[in-house]
Design brief:
By secondary structure, this protein is an alpha+beta fold. The protein has eleven helices and seven strands. The strands form two sheets. A five-stranded mixed β-sheet has the order 2-4-5-7-6, with helices on one face. A two-stranded antiparallel sheet has the order 1-3. A hairpin with a 2-residue loop joins strand 4 and strand 5. Helix 8 crosses helix 9. It is rod-shaped, with a radius of gyration of 40 Å.
């Protein structure tokens, strides 16, 4: 529907411009000559033929010369072809004007016209600006040209080519920009899809191993762990296709992820997870908070006596995420080579979805890692 409206608008705009172009020579003629010029059949026919050639040249250049010669063959060949066409159309329009608009006008350079000798009185009156000699046709309509016919024809033809080429280049620039925007949009969508589905394979491996151990030990937690893992994977695969999700659901699955991660800890009290505030009627980009928790469990030290925390505070349309953990010694962190990837992906998503709506601060002091994200949400 929008495409149809766009084409209809363009057709209307072109029609208005060409009507003005057609009537401009008549409207700008002296008042006494307008009616004569418009009612003179030869003048009207000349105007139609000359403007028809210029209109045809405009669209021939717009739809063929510019896209097929200028873009594909180069500017030099296009300039040669354009100049040749300008000369041909200018000469044709000049001939049309000469033979129709001013059939009794001045002779062409190669034409010889024998005129009777001018009387002395006629020469004197002509010199003083008086009426034309008796042998000149009376009442002839003045030609509808502002300058000499040759120059006017050449100027109009050149302007038509310039405007047509400029319109093509403008439309081509807009199409190129639109294609670049679409490609960037598709690239971002593909990147976001990959980021949404990105989850540490170590997490799955460790979780499945823990569940296997629970099954072998006939623990009642085995079934609950399988349910939590299936819910988390289902959420990642299916619920994240939406642009946003309910904040409550995002926090629910984040809590499930933390519970699964805590299964591998010998000391469960080394991690403190808290959520405060009201999450109802608020939305957030899906899986935005998961990399924060994943980074915490990947690089934190959960040995006896250590304290690590992840706290989320909800206040009206403001979400505050605070994370603090004891850094795992480098020798005890086999995933150090891939450290920081999750947070880098988080920063990319924040720039895409929350430009100018977030403040992210990351710092490391005295072997402790501090993370703070302040986010404006709907």
């Amino acid at each position: 529907m929008q495409v149809g409206k766009s084409y209809s608008t363009q057709i209307l705009l072109h029609s208005v411009v060409w009507i003005f172009f057609f009537l401009a020579p008549l409207l700008l003629s002296p008042p006494g000559d307008f009616a004569k010029a418009f009612l003179e059949p030869n003048n009207l026919l000349s105007l139609i033929l000359r403007n028809g050639l210029l209109i045809g040249l405009f669209y021939f250049n717009l739809f063929y010369l510019a896209p097929h010669v200028l873009i594909k063959k180069g500017a030099l060949l296009y300039a040669v072809v354009a100049i040749a066409i300008i000369m041909v159309i200018s000469l044709i329009n000049w001939q049309i004007h000469h033979h129709l608009s001013e059939p009794n006008g001045p002779p062409l350079p190669w034409e010889k016209v024998d005129r009777p000798p001018m009387h002395s009185m006629d020469r004197e009156m002509n010199h003083m600006g008086g009426p034309p000699p008796m042998d000149m046709p009376p009442g002839r309509v003045k030609p509808m040209m502002f300058a000499s016919p040759v120059f006017s024809s050449f100027l109009l033809t050149t302007l038509v080519i310039i405007f047509s080429t400029s319109l093509f280049l403008w439309e081509d620039w807009k199409r190129t920009k639109e294609r670049a925007r679409e490609q960037e949009f598709e690239r971002q969508n593909a990147e976001l899809a990959a980021l949404k589905l990105q989850i540490s394979p170590h997490f799955l491996f460790n979780t499945l191993n823990n569940i296997r151990w629970l099954v072998r030990s006939k623990s009642d937690r085995a079934e609950d762990s399988l349910v939590k893992l299936s819910q988390l994977l289902r959420y990642i695969l299916y619920q994240t296709t939406n642009e946003t999700v309910e904040l409550g659901r995002e926090l629910e699955h984040l809590s499930g992820y933390i519970e699964l991660q805590k299964m591998r800890l010998t000391e469960a009290d080394t991690i403190d997870f808290e959520v405060s505030g009201i999450a109802e009627n608020k939305t957030i980009v899906p899986l935005l908070l998961l990399p924060i928790a994943e980074n915490l469990f990947k690089h934190a030290d959960f040995s006896v006596g250590q304290k690590n925390s992840l706290k989320i505070q909800i206040d009206d349309h403001r979400l505050l995420v605070l994370s603090e953990n004891k850094c795992l010694p480098k020798t005890e962190n086999p995933e150090k080579e891939n450290s920081g990837i999750g947070l880098q992906n988080l920063q990319k998503r924040l720039r895409i979805h929350y430009p100018d709506k977030h403040v992210l601060q990351i710092a490391t002091r005295n072997d402790r890692f501090y993370f703070q994200l302040e986010l404006l949400i709907n």
